[in-house]
Design a protein that fits this description.
The chain is mainly beta. It is built from nine helices and 97 strands. The longest helix has 19 residues, at 192-210. The two termini are 52 Å apart. Keywords: Coiled coil, Cytoplasm, Immunoglobulin domain, Nucleus, Repeat.
């Protein structure tokens, strides 16, 4: 719950972490398309790592190694293709120290992606030796002396801080997965897999504890040290109770904290985000920090001692020395800082004959020696660590033998230096004159000598302390009482020139110093010197956060977005101090990070406001205030959300105009969506219809409309929409309004078909009733084909009778008819249509259906099928009627409306388990045929399938599982309906450790971690609702490697034999099947050999025991999963040998002469290899005495060559070149020599260079 969400990368070995809850549309987290690969290169070559990244916005890529940073530009070259996504790290001139794990990290605002690659440097011995020989001898001597001094002065190692392992586990629970290995190595956790299992269990317990106090925890950010030397870490907490107490612990001890910048530990809270700061860092501040809510740890992080910047413990002191003497500066830091650098007058110093730089063996004391100091070396010397620095003056005084005399050249040098470095004589005398050092600027406190100050009456207005904002123009001015010359300006004792970016002005006695666009580095003590008079003032530069000018220009224009779109406002800023951002809307503060509301975020150098889905309610004036100790800055922006307008305000009044139409009135919409209303669109719909027709448009300034195109006597509904440039909004709809009708006749009845034939169809109908139906002039008759929407008139003139025969019809077509009454006021509404009728001679009813049967049943349906009737029994059927009759009723009920065209039908909605009689009747124009019914009662219930298991020959009846593994046994079955599934173990209900699941004909047994108690006979029982059962049994045996047997006892029961007896293995008492293997070792035969392989008893007798030999016994318990550790005898068994005297007469024989000169049984063969591959040349040589093989390349001996090595194993000789290069091409020769002669075998090696 405390971890950030992880995402799966497209490449293995890449870790992608999402830093926000939701990624807006169009953005994406970083990922690697190509990651750097692991390299193994020879010493002296160059290594190149390439990585291709993607992400929106484009991620920033940084390279790191576990041994330190990669800031040495001559050693490490980091580049990126212009506009491309490929990033390259090149390491030049590899050495053994470059062997390391290199990590590439890609970061953007939504997440980060990390991958790593290892570099292995193959060191070659002769290269080191050759390099050492080229070094000057004096450098070697100096290096040895330094090493001896280092051994003498080496300080005892600092005692390691004891860390509670419980805190380490808490640190692992909130750490990134990529840091697991580093933490485990640091704290001595060697069982990595065990650590992961325990960590998973602890996380579950931790989540249960945290659930008591918090709803969610997210966006954890571990400790990091800012450029200002402040350690910060933060997290987001959604507390259940806002009154819950939050504690901060360090190494298990509670640490008090405040809520401002005046305390060492402080907490700043912004909404749900808690931001902790640790100021004034010291080495003792390193350790594991934990945040607790009440008594539960929710976050742990570690401050490494190496991350704490070095502080100045003993600062530099002012140093005085005589001219041509040596000046020594020393500064002591709190902890080692390899990056500390010396500066003179803010310019870096490089070690040379002039400047000697050294560091004490403990790395804390830094020493600078200025050799042969001159007056030009006077000034401020400083030591900087990146976070802190210390400065002091060097004062060069004239020697006792020199007095006040200095050479003219030195004076001129001082004059030139004074013009550049600001060391000009404060009395303002000309260059080339000789001055006493005591009259020069007085270092130390930054003040001038008393002689330089003079009386204050020479200034009518002195310099005043000034405070300005960074980027503004600062003006320092003073007014003299008399003209003392042009004067000079100094900053912190250094004379200013126009090259320092300042402007000098003089108007009479008024002197001004103008500094445009003041920066923080220009703050300090300023002095104006005229003659022997001076005035001082302090310039203070406030450095509030600054917003980029381009961003301010953009914010001046209103931000216009469409409703529903996400809005992201990102304001970049710059600040040297910690910043707090406060967003507000229309004066109300915005707080929260929910998924629907406004989301406020503060990152490194930016603050962001996100609206996941903008709405009209989000319109308004937004402002953000950035505050720091240096001040505050405010930025404002206007957000306009454009949307379609709301419906016009109702009600929509619709009034009948009595012949003029319908008059409509409404009010303009309450919200026009940010755009002016251009017009209104009016639509109408006739009652009983679903189609809306456009009635017209009304102008925006007049919300009224009259619709004259309405028919009297009809009802209409109207609706109005407001239209803007964004489109039409929602509609305002009116109630139905009736337009006053004229007295028209009503509709006649539906025509009845009296007769039908191929010659004509005779119709009859009744007269209409109601107003307008008193005087009927006649009737108009219309016809249409069935399925058509077009009505065709049958007669041109109204017919007075209410009976008519329609002729001129197409034989075989099906027609519908309707009648309209005509009165003096006009024709009325058409009557309803008649039933469809065929224009053909009368048909015979169809015969009965055939082969009626039930094809399927369920608890609520019955499916029937049948064959059509025989045409000999009647005309062809045009449809079918399916009827049901329940068992307790005599009434047949149709299952559908109309007829069924197909010969199959499913009757649905039946009562479960109910019995029904079924019959089907064929229908055509001639009428209904004879119904066909089933003789038996049909019940609405599913087809029963008896439960059975789907097992075959591949199904195992026994399963052997190793203890600690997971048991998963799936069993397939079929049954209908779903049976009851019961699992049993040894005839008893399944223990709680076993988990069973059943779904879709599959039941499965799952035991996460098998133990010996899980062995037994497992049975699955299927029970159908009818009580039928089916069972399937299988046996599971959980076993582990057996324990070793007990002690072994040896005794001699029969002479010449020895019997070994041992205590059985403890597993044998628990009924675990196992056997024993007996191994013996005698003094005559050194290695162990197996005397008996499968012994099922606890004793074994060894035959053929020889006197005088010692016998050792070893017994191992074995089963199917492996063997136990052996049980050995403590003392060997030995029978004393009784020696008899006898005489041996050795036969005389002559040894054969096996001497032979060398010869090659298998010679060398030619090799053709690509560059970088391994080359192995082998040959087989024979000879007596054993020949010595020497290898040559181009007749040059390869003995001692570091690029290749040779082996000789039982006469098979090989020359191995690990990685061939084009220089290795040539002719190779193997020469075998002994005292009788020599043999030669040659071969050629050709190395192919890769094509460019």
């Amino acid at each position: 719950m405390a971890e950030k969400p992880w995402k799966k990368s497209s490449l293995p070995g890449v870790s992608v972490r999402q830093l926000v809850e939701e990624v807006p549309e169009g953005g994406s987290t970083p990922d690697f398309e190509q990651k750097p690969i692991t390299l193994a290169l020879q010493e002296g070559k160059n290594a190149i790592f390439r990585a291709v990244v993607r992400g929106e916005p484009r991620p920033e890529v940084c390279w790191q190694s576990t041994k330190g940073d990669l800031s040495n530009s001559s050693k490490y070259q980091i580049s990126c293709a212009p506009g491309g996504r490929e990033h390259v790290l090149q390491i030049n001139k590899l050495t053994g120290e470059d062997t390391d794990l290199y990590r590439c990290t890609a970061v953007n605002v939504y997440g980060e992606a990390t991958c790593s690659a290892r570099l292995t440097v193959i060191e070659v011995g002769f290269r080191k030796k050759r390099k050492r020989q080229k070094e000057p001898q004096e450098d070697l001597r100096k290096e040895l002396m330094d090493f001896r001094n280092l051994l003498k002065k080496r300080a005892p190692p600092a005692p390691k801080k004891k860390v509670d392992l419980e805190q380490v586990w808490q640190l692992l629970m909130t750490a990134d997965r990529k840091d697991y290995e580093q933490i485990c190595l640091k704290y001595g956790i060697v069982d990595y897999r065990g650590m992961l299992r325990k960590l998973q269990e602890m996380k579950k317990e931790q989540e249960d504890k945290m659930a008591q106090y918090i709803n969610a925890i997210s966006n954890l950010r571990h400790i990091r040290v800012t450029k200002e030397g402040v350690a910060t870490f933060d997290l987001e907490l959604d507390l259940k109770d806002s009154g819950s107490k939050i504690y901060l612990y360090k190494d298990g001890e509670m640490v008090p904290y405040g809520f401002d910048n005046l305390t060492k530990h402080c907490l700043r809270r912004l909404g749900k985000r808690y931001h902790f700061q640790i100021r004034d860092l010291r080495p003792e501040d390193s350790g594991i920090y934990q945040v607790k809510v009440e008594d539960t740890v929710v976050f742990s992080t570690e401050l490494e001692a190496s991350a704490i910047p070095a502080r100045v413990v003993v600062p530099l002191a002012e140093t005085r020395c005589e001219e041509q003497g040596d000046a020594v500066f020393e500064c002591t830091l709190s902890n080692p800082c390899p990056s500390a650098a010396w500066q003179f007058r803010r310019r870096p110093l490089q070690p040379s004959d002039k400047y000697e730089v050294s560091v004490s063996p403990d790395g804390l004391t830094h020493r600078l020696v200025v050799r042969g100091a001159r007056f030009s070396d006077m000034g401020v010397y400083s030591l900087g660590t990146g976070f802190h620095d210390s400065s002091a003056w060097l004062v060069v005084e004239a020697g006792k033998d020199k007095g006040l005399q200095t050479t003219s050249a030195d004076s001129q040098l001082q004059g030139r230096r004074g013009g550049k470095e600001g060391r000009l004589d404060v009395h303002g005398k000309g260059r080339g004159t000789t001055q006493s050092p005591t009259s020069r600027y007085k270092p130390g406190t930054g003040s001038f000598p008393t002689e330089a100050r003079g009386p204050t009456g020479h200034f009518s207005q002195r310099l005043a302390d000034t405070e300005v904002q960074r980027g503004e123009t600062a003006t320092l001015s003073c007014t003299l009482t008399s003209d003392l010359g042009p004067g000079a300006w100094f900053k912190d004792g250094v004379e200013l020139t126009t090259q320092d970016g300042v402007v000098f002005e003089q108007e009479g006695l008024v002197h001004r110093l103008l500094i445009a666009h003041v920066q923080g580095t220009q703050a300090g003590r300023y002095t104006f010197v005229a003659g022997n008079r001076q005035s001082e003032a302090t310039l203070t530069v406030h450095d509030p956060p600054t917003i980029a000018p381009g961003a301010m220009e953009t914010l001046r224009e209103p931000l216009v977005v469409k409703a529903g779109k996400p809005v992201t406002v990102r304001i970049p800023f710059q600040s040297c101090l910690p910043v707090q951002a406060a967003w507000s809307k229309d004066g109300a503060e915005l707080v929260g990070s929910g998924s629907r509301g406004a989301q406020v975020a503060l990152g490194d150098g930016y603050t962001r406001l996100c609206l996941p889905s903008a709405g009209r309610k989000d319109c308004g004036q937004y402002s953000v205030t950035l505050r720091s100790e240096g001040g505050s800055v405010r930025a404002e922006l206007t957000l306009q959300v454009i949307d379609k307008p709301e419906p016009p305000q109702g009600p929509l009044e619709a009034q009948d105009g009595h012949g003029a139409g319908v008059c409509l009135r409404w009010r303009p919409p309450r919200d026009d969506g940010g755009r002016a209303v251009e017009r209104y669109v009016v639509e109408r719909r006739q009652a009983g219809r679903s189609t809306w027709l456009k009635a017209g448009e009304a102008p925006a300034h007049g919300p009224a409309f009259t619709d004259a195109h309405v028919e009297p006597g009809r009802k209409y509904a109207f609706r109005v929409r407001a239209v803007t440039s964004e489109g039409a909004g929602e509609a305002l709809e009116s109630e139905e309004v009736l337009v006053a009708p004229e007295a028209l006749p009503g509709a006649p009845s539906a025509p009845a078909v009296l007769s039908a034939s191929s010659q004509g169809i005779t119709l009859a109908w009744t007269a209409p009733r109601g107003p307008g139906s008193a005087h009927i002039l006649g009737y108009l008759i219309e016809r249409r084909k069935k399925g058509s929407n077009t009505w065709t008139a049958v007669n041109d003139r109204p017919v007075p009778e209410r009976r008519w025969t329609v002729v001129d019809l197409r034989q075989g077509c099906q027609y519908e008819f309707r009648v309209t009454a005509v009165a003096p006021s006009g024709p009325g509404e058409p009557g309803p249509p008649s039933d469809a009728v065929f224009a053909r001679d009368p048909m015979r009813p169809p015969g009965p259906v055939r082969n009626l049967q039930v094809t399927d049943t369920s608890s609520t349906s019955i499916t029937l099928s049948w064959a059509g009737p025989d045409t000999q029994d009647g005309d062809e059927a045009q449809g079918y009627v399916v009827e049901l009759c329940s068992a307790d009723s005599l009434q047949w009920s149709p299952c559908h409306t109309g007829t069924v065209p197909a010969t199959t039908y499913t009757a649905k909605g039946l009562r479960p388990q109910e019995g029904y009689f079924v019959r089907v009747t064929a229908v055509n124009e001639g009428g209904h045929g004879q119904p066909t019914a089933l003789d038996t009662l049909v019940h609405a219930m599913p087809t029963t399938v008896c439960p059975r298991f789907l097992v075959d020959s591949r199904t195992k009846d026994s399963l052997l599982v190793k203890a600690g593994d997971t048991i998963s046994v799936p069993v397939s079955f079929e049954a209908a309906p779903m049976p009851k599934v019961t699992w049993l173990k040894d005839g008893l209900p399944l223990p709680k450790r076993g988990v069973t699941t059943t779904k879709d004909g599959l039941t499965q047994l799952l035991i996460p971690v098998a133990s010996l108690s899980d062995s037994g006979l497992y049975t699955v029982v299927l029970t159908s609702p009818q009580g039928k059962e089916a069972a399937h049994s299988f046996r599971i045996r959980v076993a582990a490697c057996p324990q070793p047997p007990g002690p072994i006892r040896l005794q001699e029961n029969v002479p010449g034999t020895v019997t070994a007896e041992w205590e059985p293995s403890p597993d044998e008492a628990r009924g675990v099947p196992l056997h024993y293997a007996v191994q013996t070792r005698s003094s005559a035969n050194g290695p162990w050999r197996e005397a008996a392989g499968r012994v099922h008893t606890n004793r074994f007798t060894l035959l053929g025991v020889l006197p005088g030999h010692e016998y050792h016994f070893r017994v191992v318990a074995k089963n199917e999963l492996g063997a136990s550790s052996p049980s050995d005898t403590g003392q060997p068994w030995c029978i004393p040998r009784q020696r008899d005297r006898f005489t041996v007469k050795a036969p005389r024989y002559r040894e054969p002469d096996l001497s032979q000169k060398p010869r090659f049984l298998v010679g060398l063969r030619a090799h053709l290899l690509p560059q970088g591959c391994e080359c192995r040349m082998s040959c087989a040589v024979q000879g007596s005495p054993r020949p010595r093989v020497t290898w040559f390349k181009n007749d040059q001996s390869l003995e001692g060559s570091p690029a290749a090595y040779s082996t000789d194993l039982l006469g098979v000789c090989s020359l191995v070149i690990p990685s061939v290069s084009p220089e290795d091409s040539g002719e190779y020769k193997a020469v075998a020599e002994n005292t009788l002669g020599q043999a030669v075998s040659t071969a050629t090696l050709i190395v192919i260079e890769p094509s460019s």
